[in-house]
Design a protein that fits this description.
Strand content of chain B: under 5%
Distance between the termini of chain A: 40 Å
Shape of chain A: globular
Strand order of the largest sheet of chain A: 6-7-8-3-9-10
Largest interface: A-B, 28 and 21 residues
Helix content of chain B: 55-70%
CATH class of the largest domain in chain A: Alpha Beta
Largest sheet of chain B: 2 strands, antiparallel
Largest sheet of chain A: 6 strands, mixed
Order of helices and strands of chain A: HEEEHEEHEHHHEHEHEEHHHH
Radius of gyration of chain A: 20 Å
Structural class of chain B: mainly alpha
Number of domains of chain B: 2
CATH superfamily of the largest domain in chain A: P-loop containing nucleotide triphosphate hydrolases
Number of helices of chain A: 12
Oligomer: heterodimer
CATH architecture of the largest domain in chain A: 3-Layer(aba) Sandwich
Structural class of chain A: alpha/beta
Strand order of the largest sheet of chain B: 1-2
């Protein structure tokens, strides 16, 4: 807990005051389900515009509940969620949809149109846009995920990777400022995982804010800048991804193990530190970084 | 609005043998169709409501049935009134008699309206009756009861699976609705009744495909565990008819006789 406070204070200092800096502001959010289960307790989070954030935690930690509160599908029991300047309490899901796009878990449960094109145009049509604009947005979104050729296909007949991409395209067609992906890589093969994260990454590079919930730690370390660790409805850790994964002992509290490459890097770091005093390499997040560190270590 | 969710409890209804409950459910259902006397159908409805209360089943759910069905009841009563000929007219014809062909149509007769009320009362009785069993009996005990009464295990299993699937489908439907809301579809939040009605078919596609996928998977899982290999099954948890069950059945028999006598005598 101490860790999380230190981290957020650091970030606070980096960012000048003023609400417009933030894509998402969560103040004292508590959420209790109708059955009486409190899934989120006093959550405070601020996500800057154009951040790429990974949210991790065990099943039942409150990740999906948090995302649903951000998108307005659930309204806070206590506290406020402000998305791109709008309080979710004062807005409908449909109104928020143009600000924040949400890719739900399991694509199969959210594809309902007979063709890919119709699926993707469903959102823009609901926004009552002119026909040519709808067409343009569909083209653009399908181009973004690389599915232009499959536009006439029956979505459930596509491969699992492509079905996930259809859902992402249909959310992108809303042109949201923030995009949230809830376990987008579950059940995907290696290629699928990296294709999906690649799409998210490009969206981020284009100046948007991205939040990803995933159990794939290697994807978190490779793609995100910041990591938020949820545990039993509270924020256990929050900080730069490298910083968060530098504390495996804290992560272990919530049964999260850093990716193997990070563990290998930590072992190497210890070995190097033992061999050469005063040498403190960074926490390794990717294979490339480990390679660089080994090369650096071998230099006299 | 769920009719099949088991509600934890320790009332008399909860403790009864499922077989006793199934017998009473069946007989009472038949009686509801036989009874034509308003006093008696009222008595049955009152009994059912009292049982709801005594079993501590959620009154909210009960209220939601009434709320949900009000529209249907008004429709039934009006339609019956319009098309059931009777001496006493409640509402004079909407269309004057001098209009050719359709003149004189649109009158509501008292007999028709009463018949409509009777049908409505039967429907509400039936709808409130079923949860008295399903909400007080864990689903596997319900199936066990049916099997012990002679139904083949395969069929009982199919039934319970179907019942178990309802909440799954409800959950999936709400996910699809969420996905649609997230793409600025306003109908579920702000739309009119007709708009909502039009929006539902779109939900069917993912639901049916999902159900088919699940069924296929389940079939493989069941086959791999040799479902139906043994003709005679044994059970981990068994059910035994206790004196209490027979006593309740006896009281129920007297109750039914009273209702039927009341129906034909009054």
């Amino acid at each position: 807990m101490k860790e999380s406070r230190v981290k957020s204070e650091q970030r606070e200092r980096q960012v000048p005051a003023g609400g417009s800096e933030y894509a998402i502001e969560i103040n004292n959010l508590t959420f209790t389900y109708p059955g009486g289960f409190t899934a989120l307790k006093e959550i405070n989070l601020k996500v800057k515009r154009n951040e790429f954030v990974g949210i991790i935690g065990q099943n039942g930690a409150g990740k999906s509940t948090l995302l649903k509160n951000i998108t307005g599908l659930l309204k806070p029991t206590k506290g406020d969620v402000i998305v791109v300047g709008v309080n979710t309490k004062d807005s409908t899901v449909a109104d928020l949809a143009t600000r924040v796009g949400f890719v739900l878990q399991n694509p199969d449960r959210q594809l309902f149109a007979p063709t890919v094109e119709e699926e993707v145009s469903f959102g823009p049509k609901n926004l009552k846009l002119p026909a040519d604009e709808i067409k343009q947005r569909v083209q653009e979104a399908l181009g973004y995920v690389g599915l232009l050729e499959q536009k006439d296909a029956f979505p459930p007949a596509l491969s699992k990777g492509d079905r996930a991409k259809v859902v992402i395209a249909s959310v992108l067609a809303m042109r949201p400022e923030v995009i949230i992906l809830d376990e987008p890589t579950t059940g995907q093969d290696f290629r699928g995982c990296h294709q999906i994260m690649g799409i998210a990454s490009r969206f981020h590079e284009a100046g948007h804010t991205v939040l990803v919930v995933t159990h794939h730690m290697a994807l978190v370390t490779e793609y995100t800048q910041r990591t938020i660790v949820l545990c039993n409805g509270t924020v256990l850790m929050d900080g730069e991804t490298r910083e968060v994964f530098s504390h495996p002992e804290m992560l272990r509290q919530t049964f999260i193990v850093p990716p193997q490459i990070t563990q290998a890097g930590t072992d190497l770091k210890e070995a190097l530190m033992a061999a050469r005093r005063g040498w403190t390499p960074r926490t390794v997040l990717t294979v490339k970084e480990l390679g660089e560190d080994i090369v650096a270590a071998m230099k006299p | 609005m769920s009719v099949v969710q088991y509600v934890e409890g320790n009332s008399l209804l909860h403790r009864l043998d499922p077989r006793a409950k199934i017998i009473m459910l069946t007989i009472l259902t038949i009686i509801i169709f036989i009874v034509e006397n308003f006093l008696m159908i009222g008595a049955i409805l009152l009994t059912i409501l009292l049982l709801w209360w005594s079993a501590r089943l959620p009154m909210k759910t009960l209220a939601s049935y009434f709320k949900f069905l009000t529209g249907l009841f008004v429709f039934i009563i009006v339609i019956q009134g319009l098309f059931y000929s009777g001496e006493v007219i409640l509402v004079q014809p909407l269309i004057p008699r001098w209009v050719p062909l359709i003149g004189g149509l649109g009158k509501i007769s008292l007999d028709g309206a009463l018949f409509g009320i009777l049908i409505s009362a039967r429907i509400i009785c039936l709808i409130c009756l079923l949860p008295l069993v399903t909400m007080t009996t864990p689903i596997h005990f319900f199936a066990l009861g049916l099997t012990k009464m002679g139904l083949s295990y395969q069929i009982a299993y199919t039934m319970t699976t179907a019942l178990n699937t309802i909440p799954v489908l409800q959950n999936e439907a709400s996910v699809v609705m969420d996905a649609q809301k997230l793409r600025a579809f306003r109908v579920f939040e702000e739309g009119s009744f007709v708009q909502k009605l039009k929006a539902y078919p779109a939900l069917a596609v993912p639901l049916v495909i999902g159900a088919m996928r699940r069924a296929q998977l389940m079939g493989v899982a069941m086959d791999s565990r040799a479902f139906g290999a043994l003709k005679r099954r044994t059970y981990v948890e068994d059910i035994i008819m206790k004196p209490q069950d027979y006593a309740v059945l006896a009281v129920f028999a007297v109750y039914c006789a009273a209702v039927l006598v009341g129906n034909f005598m009054l």
